[in-house]
Design goal:
alpha+beta, 5 helices, flavoprotein, FMN, single chain, Nitroreductase, four-stranded antiparallel sheet, 179 residues, globular, NADH Oxidase, Nitroreductase-like, two-stranded antiparallel sheet
């Protein structure tokens, strides 16, 4: 698993190759294994392969234009109950990590609390497009496909340890070294 974590990069440029059905199924399986607070599992995933719908998603925020180019977009929504943001975020991360594991590229597109270029709520645009029930919230969309260019995995030099502390045997927490 650590390899998928190191290899996961935000990919915003995709080749024309489609995503194989088996890979989509593996990504959905990984998402379905996500934990959920109090076992509520309030989330839902909509797989969008239709080019016209991907085009609409690409206009859901000013930062989502690459979604039109991606052969598939996973939209993560949730009933607004329990720790729905946390549960849906874990699902989204499982999707991204399994996409990486499958040799694909992925990039998160924030939908919740964002607006379209014409100042409309991004969530409402996506809910209308995909007929997501009113009592659900849309957290994000994840564009997935074969990357046009392979990015290098993260290196240990990139680790963000400046705010990681460990407390051992009752001692005061100590800051971790950068190396």
């Amino acid at each position: 698993m650590i390899e998928s974590i190191r290899e996961r990069r935000s990919v915003r440029s995709f080749s024309d190759d489609g995503v194989e059905e088996k890979k989509i199924e593996e990504i959905l399986t990984a998402a379905a294994f996500s934990p959920s607070a109090r076992a509520l599992y309030p989330w839902s995933i909509t797989v969008v392969e239709n080019p016209e719908k991907r085009e609409v998603i690409s206009k859901a925020t000013p930062y989502a234009d690459f979604a039109a180019e991606a052969p598939v977009v996973f939209v993560v929504a949730s009933k607004e109950e329990g720790e729905w943001i946390e549960d849906a975020s874990i699902v989204a991360e499982h999707i991204q990590l399994e996409a990486t594991n499958q040799g694909l590229g992925a990039c998160w597109i924030q939908i919740r609390d964002h607006k379209t270029e014409d100042d409309k709520q991004s969530e409402e645009k996506i809910k209308d497009l995909l007929e997501i029930p009113e009592d659900y919230r849309v957290l994000c969309a994840i564009a997935i496909g074969h990357p046009k260019k392979q990015k290098q995995p993260h290196t240990k030099k990139e680790l963000q340890k400046r705010e990681i502390y460990r407390k051992k045997h009752g001692n005061k927490p100590k800051k971790q070294n950068k190396k």
